[in-house]
Amino acid sequence: MKFFIDTANLEQIEQAQNMGILDGVTTNPSLMAKEGIKGKEQIMQRYKDICNIVDGPVSAEVFATDYDGMIKEGEELAAIDPKITVKLPCTKDGIRAVKYFKSKNIATNCTLIFSVGQALLAAKAGATFVSPFVGRLDDICEDGISLVGDIVKVFRTYGLKTQVLAASIRHTNHILKCLQVGADVATCPLKAIEGLLNHPLTDKGLDIFIKDAAKMQ
Ligand code: E4P
Fold first, then answer.
1. What is the pLDDT of residue 33?
2. Which of 64, 141, 199, 207 has most Cβ atoms within 10 angstroms of its Cβ?
3. Residues with C-beta less than 6 Å from any ligand 1 atom
4. Taking the complete model, does pTM exceed 0.90, yes or no?
């Protein structure tokens, strides 16, 4: 499973990149706004900066909700760097835009996916990634991980090439569950990725080794 980091924060992206485990980045308008980014120039600059740090795909979400607006914005975003994946909402216009970018060989991430039916339409239109939102389904007492697993099963059954990118990952256990249901990618906050490292026996064992190593100095 690939690891994307779900942030527009350059320090966190650098930290994940320096760990050597980063496969890509996802952003959305809320994550960009959280960084205090304002206006087109700063938005474009932030995507350039992110692309300069990471080696893999960088999802840049359009703000427009109509087809023409999505195409115009998506083309501008895609022109920033070949690493840019145009992120489009799973609406009728969004699906049409996925199809358009597929015809131009531009990668897309169809976002705000909350059902297998939505994922299927995005895949049929040629999306590179679909993003089912795990945490937001859990928030309303539905099972986000089951949705990821159901989409994986359907895509495997019908040989659909679209990658299942589990989004709205809130904690480390979500990542482990994504592995179990076969997600292709999980996009995660840095803290959730770092949580994979934690084990008390590692800390205890290291402490003993440090003490014994000191005896030999
Ligand atoms: C990323 O692609 C999604 O936009 C993001 O994971 C949503 O996360 P949230 O539900 O925690 O806002």
1. 98
2. 64
3. 6, 26, 28, 111, 131, 133, 135-136, 167-168, 187
4. yes
